[in-house]
Write a structure and sequence with these properties.
Helix content: 40-55%
Shape: globular
Number of domains: 2
CATH class of the largest domain: Alpha Beta
Bound molecules: pyridoxal-5'-phosphate
Mean pLDDT: 95
Distance between the termini: 26 Å
CATH architecture of the largest domain: 3-Layer(aba) Sandwich
Length: 406
């Protein structure tokens, strides 16, 4: 039996989302076509968009369907930055350290190719972006700030960010905000309109854009959305047929949207109860790990400040990758949470941004729970962990090559 505890990487598709996907793939018709088959496809697409919008607290017209979270993040950051730099230069993008690579690499690209300046915001010990730091940076850079971008919840250590407070500060300064809600969607109540209202966002200032992805909530890979406020100003990345408010050209993926909508409706419909169930499993797992390995340390906040399905632990004196491989051999799939560049494990940039040493950042393991997780999965991990930890500790940290046979 394989125990899958890597739901933040991708979560199994929901059976109804698979059925809806397969059915919709059999439908012929480009939603831009005038004939009745095209119009039937368009109706399916627009009904799906309505359902997706209802789960995000926005109007259907504000849902720009994309090929996933990465494209949504690229579109938001590059598109808003270009739009804001049409007139007087506003080179600065404020972003916390420890963002997902979809953001970091986009920022670095803009820096290298377009002359953007990145104002990195510090994370505290728990991975939290502090609103006073955002306020200070907005004041320091003044009218040179193009936008603020941040994660709603950190995909690695699970820290939930004070999005409304930060959006309110940006709104006061007339600055647009993009939120990457990929890791939060399906686990937290991410209501775009509610945050806009509560933060005093209006027009193109405050929260204007939010990225989500279908495969993190039981929908298909390769489908996502950027929620883009009507009043936001953005330059498109893709040019072509002018679909989706001319923001995202390209023939629209009806089957992907239909399947995404089924997953979104199911997941957000069960979200509140599921969050309670997962938080209980998460806390039992954290207690079990800290009892089995007393030197282990929980990264990120405990309790309500973290995603209900996220456990991220630092193990002293061993490589996270050794633990990962040993647990895999025991039939348990987990992650280190950090990027693996061309097969070479890197110490987590999120933990580094939280002030951990490289050594501390190397022994990290991320366990993420989701809709298929049950008590028996937690038991299986807790049973396999002591042996895996003992063996990984013997292999130690001596070099970057894992020594599983040691
Ligand atoms: C926080 C976050 N942003 C963006 C992405 C990218 O989404 P996608 O895999 O749909 O491109 C991910 C996926 O891991 C993520 O966790």
């Amino acid at each position: 039996m394989v125990v899958y505890l890597d739901h933040a990487a991708t979560t199994p598709m929901l059976p109804d989302a698979i059925l809806a996907y397969a059915d919709a793939l059999g439908v012929v018709g480009n939603p831009a076509s005038i004939h009745s088959q095209g119009q039937a496809a368009k109706r399916m697409l627009e009904e799906a968009r309505e359902k997706i919008a209802a789960t995000l607290g926005c109007d259907p017209i504000e849902v720009v369907l994309t090929s996933g979270g990465t494209e949504a993040v690229n579109l938001a950051i590059k598109g808003i930055w270009w739009s804001r730099n049409r007139g007087a230069p506003k080179p600065v993008i404020l972003a916390p350290g420890g963002e997902h690579h979809a953001t970091i690499d986009t920022l670095e690209w803009l820096e290298q190719h377009e002359g953007a300046e990145i104002g990195w915001l510090p994370l505290d010990d728990d991975g939290l972006v502090r609103p006073d730091e955002v306020k200070a940076a907005l004041e320091r850079y003044g009218d040179r700030v193009a936008l603020v971008t941040l994660l709603w919840a950190n995909n690695e250590v699970g820290t939930i960010q004070p999005v409304t407070e930060i959006a309110a500060l940006a709104a006061t300064s007339g600055v647009p905000v993009h939120v990457d809600a990929v890791a939060a969607y399906g686990y937290l109540d991410i209501d775009f309109r509610a945050v806009r209202d509560a933060s005093g966002s209006s027009g193109g200032a405050g929260l204007v854009a939010m990225s989500v992805s279908a495969h993190k909530i039981g929908g298909p890979v390769g489908v996502g959305a950027l929620v883009l406020s009507r009043s936001a100003s953005i330059e498109p990345l893709l040019h072509g047929g002018g679909q989706q408010r001319r923001v995202r050209s390209g023939t629209q993926d009806v089957a992907g949207a239909v399947s995404f909508a089924v997953a979104a409706a199911f997941t957000t419909g069960h979200r509140a109860d599921e969050a309670v169930r997962l938080a209980a499993l998460r806390d039992r797992l954290i207690d079990g790990i800290l009892t089995a390995v007393p030197s282990a340390r929980l990264n990120g906040p405990a309790g309500g400040g973290r995603l209900p399905g996220n456990v991220h632990v630092a193990f002293a004196g061993c490589e996270g990758d050794s633990l990962l491989f040993l647990l895999d051999m025991a039939g348990v799939s987990v992650s280190t949470g950090s990027a693996c560049q061309a097969g070479i494990p890197e110490p987590s940039h999120v933990l580094r941004a939280m002030g951990r040493t490289e050594l501390e950042a190397r022994g990290a393991l991320r366990v993420t729970l989701g809709h298929t997780t049950s008590d028996s999965d937690i038991d299986a991990l807790l049973a396999a962990l002591p042996g895996a930890y003992a063996q990984a500790s013997r292999a130690g940290l001596s070099d970057r090559t894992t020594k599983l046979g040691a």
